[in-house]
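Worked example (supplementary).
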Amino acid sequence: MILLPLLALLAAQANPDLESLRTAQQLMDGGRWADAIPVLTKLVDKHPEAPALTYGLGRCYFEVEDYPAAVPSLREAAQRIPASAEVHFFLGSALGLGGNFGEAIRELRAAMDLDPEFEPAYRAFGMFRVERAQYLPDALAALETAVRLDPQDARALYWLGEFHRGLGELTKARPYFDRAYRLDPESPLAQLGVGQVSLNDGDVDQALVHFDAVLKQAPGLAAALLGRARALYYKGQFEQALAPARAAWEDSHEFEERRASGWILVRIYRALGRDAEAQASEKKLKDMETTVAGELVRLRQLSEEAARYEAEGRFDRVAELLEASLKIRERDDSLARLGDAYLKLGRLGDAERCYVRASEIGALTDALQQRLLRVRELTAQHKP
Amino acid sequence: MLAGVAVLDYDGDGKLDVYFVNGAAIPSLQKSGEKYSNRLFHNNGDGTFTDVTARAGVAGTGYGMGVAVGDYDNDGKPDIFLANVGPNQLLHNNGDGTFTDVTARAGLSGALLDGKKMWSVAAGWFDYNNDGLLDLFVVNYCKWELNQDPYCSVDGSRTYCDPRLYGALHNTLYRNNGDGTFTDVSEETGIAKHFGKGMGVSFADYDGDGYMDVFVANDTMPNFLFHNLHGKAFEEVGVQAGVAYADDGSELSGMGSDFRDVNNDGLPDIWHTALGHETFPLFLNRGRGQFFDGTATSRLGRLTRDMSGWGNGIMDFDNDGWKDLFVARSDVNDNGAESGMGRQHHEPCSVFRNLGNGRFEDVSADAGPSFQIPAAHRGVAFGDLDNDGRIDAVVTVLNGPARLFRNVSQNSNHWVLLRLVGTKSNRMGIGAQIKLTTGDGAILYNHVTTSVGYAGSSDSRVHFGLGASRRIAEIEIRWPSGIRQVLKDVTPDRIVTIEERQP
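After joint prediction of all chains, the assembly is encoded as:
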């Protein structure tokens, strides 16, 4: 469908590339995205003026999960078809899936603004927020909107459940996970969600069934390994719990998952009487905890010191201290403060960068929007 | 935060009286008016109480937090220790309805850190070295300076700052010298090595070695389990024992705690409260120094996840032989709803019935209208205030009238209330471990302690619900002195006084 308008145009012109274009469209329609890439690459070279081709190529790379390759094409398409919510959605998704969450949030906001009924953009926006543990009101609003626009979207339901689970609101999470599971019983995400709430509710056998189902599809998924280890621990099957606990510890990268993996591993080793291994795991856990506690203390010191310099009007020192705090932990309120300091120092570009970044990792509040408008006005005034 | 409450029979008339701790004016932190007085209410025995604070001389000074009742001089009259933000206090019971402040002589005004008295929240009496004298464990919270709080907010509304933003403190252990003075032994026993943000403290001999161990619920830091090394020192084994963290490895906002056998296997378990979305964890003692996190499997995870709790206790409220759970609830933030945190400050109290199969059910809805009233509940003290064999609860309410939950459970279950009197052991018998065998062959366990919940102090008499059993086949007491005493064929449904005797 992507290339349909172009097909019509080339057909009218009796263009020699019409056949290649038809092939590309057929390949895409058939889900043969990888095969469509060389065809579209040639077409893009010959017709750089056609944004639909650029978009089509970006979509193909997106569908084969080559996000670094997808982004330039989609970015170009978004510039040339700025009013397309769909293009912004795929660009935002490619950015997010490629690890560029900040820019992804901006593109998905653009998609939602362009088409308030475009459900996938809301779902993706919420998903990226939740994945980054950014349990912000805008994420909740986006996911609730996605579910309202498409009540049958199992993924949106899962992420809405996950939003609540991340906040410890399991009572709220459960119905969303249950609905997602009913809609798509094979989905590992839905199975994972139901497994996790079942486990916390004490329905251990039920949880274990779900975790095992997830692990069949995604054997290395740390959350499912952790769930399986905890379920077996609850059942007193400590020997069997050890392997998934170890694997979860090794495979988890996110702090909370790693901490939980470490803690279950400690308890399993202790239950098995393997005290030396328990002690080694305890030390790793303690080190994690010490690092986080130390960071919090340092962040507070830097913030308080910055506040003193703010009161004295010494914004160069404020900027220095807040830059240091952002190296420890990126926070939207620190970014906004840093932006204000740069504004005072007349460093408008840096101020805008901070405000934009604050809006990416935090909510785009009215106050932040005002700041952005102000800095952009000032920048415009200062242009020669 | 505030405030603790105690039930104690200060005048020895056999009826439990009630003592409330109160705050003070801010910023002076002084009890600048009568409204800030702590209060002692004498139990008239007819369902009414009389305020005897002035006559008793127990109004207290400074900003009060917690209370611990113990007979530190073994004169048979319970004394009162007050854990305060400023100097702590020890009030000696003169036996004539009055108390004398003996803090200075006792040396218990509070330990210093960096030249500043540590903020004490709670305390508990126990005999850590089994020398027959009650020692004192004081729980300290965090480094705090008046008017120097950082600005913390949620969605623009100011909220209390996360405790993580404040420095930690160590707890204090005082050894009773037996002459009315105490020695701070926190350093030599290893207690001072461990910095936390303590709230609730409870005692039990979890490994059966005859020495009382200490559990401290910490706020946003790992909990402490101080294993008593035969009265010489303590080693902190919270992580090793499996009680330091929640099941997901997170540090909870630990509040109150009780350390008591909940599943009748003779091994003391730990149940502590925390804040909303954290659950109130139940750590089941598996023996060999290991605890199993039974929060999820007991259903307490599901039942308590959306609750915030302070004072709590493990007590058999329906006398069926299985100890139930009571929690005084409230969120910590008084502007949680408007600050967008989505939590109501006021919550009702809850009671969870022990089903005897490892699971609990929330029976609050059927426990009477008192359990439906939300308020800023805080401390709770348990005891049989009307001596009818049913455990009652007194609950404090922040900026509101206290509440007395009189247990009116209707059933034909039997009970016994044991008042232990130590002779070689400390007079209150704190630390004595009791194994009771009913006529039906059921074996029940409990021990003497007043340290229950958050900042409170409960009745030192030990309660057993006996279910349908009309007979007690045997009561075996293991006193802190090491003496083992056995009573046979005891008649139930009464209060039994047992004096420590050599076999």
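Two points are worth noting when inspecting this output. Chain A has a mean pLDDT of 91. Chain A touches chain B through 34 residues (CB under 8 Å).
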